[in-house]
Amino acid sequence: MAQYQYITLREKPELMNLAAEWFHSKWGVPTEAYLECMEAYLKQETELGWFLCLDGGQIVGGLGVIENDFHDRKDLTPNVCAVYTEENHRCQGIAGVLLNAAVEDLRSKGISPAYLVTDHTGFYERYGWEFLCMVQGDGEPDMTRMYIHK
Q1: What's the CA gap between 70 and 52, in Å, rounded?
Q2: Cα(110)–Cα(28) distance, rounded to whole angstroms?
Q3: In what order do the strands lie in the sheet with 79-85?
Q4: How far is Cα 1 from Cα 149, in angstroms, rounded to an integer?
Q5: Bridge partners of 145?
Q6: Strand partners for 84
Q7: CATH of 4-112, one of 3.20.20.70, 3.40.630.30, 3.30.1020.10, 1.10.530.10
């Protein structure tokens, strides 16, 4: 059984460039967009953070919290984004630990509820998320699912 280490980027700021590249490789969003959000978090300009799961120093899972995850409901904020676990590390609860860490971190700062957009059904419900409504993704032809964690 792997010994995972769960951290915020503030705990290991030296991982910022690696984390930005890792998220970029998973989602195709420009590395610079991740770096901009991560730098604001590290400079304490925002409390919307970045959460990582490490296995021997390698990033095997992660997610971020941003104002808006590229959709038309700008009033539904903040958004958990970029949730990803490496395929060979799935089904071990990594995403659940990261999701709970993000929600608890926000709650400890007086920020609640949190939102996320996803095409998945049945996954986030396991971790206390509830379907809220359909939203229009920026430049997307189809509507996508918006979840809330109260």
Answers
A1: 22
A2: 31
A3: 4-8, 50-55, 58-66, 79-85, 114-118, 143-149, 130-136
A4: 30
A5: 118, 134
A6: 62
A7: 3.40.630.30
Residue 9, CB half-sphere, CA atoms under 13 Å: how many? 28
Mean pLDDT of 23-27: 97
Sign of CA dihedral 85, 25, 65, 119: negative
Locate the domains of the chain by residue range.
Answer: 4-112
Contact by Cβ (8 Å): 119, 146:
no
Q: Dump the DSSP string for 91-107.
A: SSSHHHHHHHHHHHHHH
pLDDT tens digits along 50-104: 999 999 999 999 999 999 999 999 999 999 999 999 999 999 999 999 999 999 9
CA-CA distance, 148 to 10, in Å (whole number)? 25
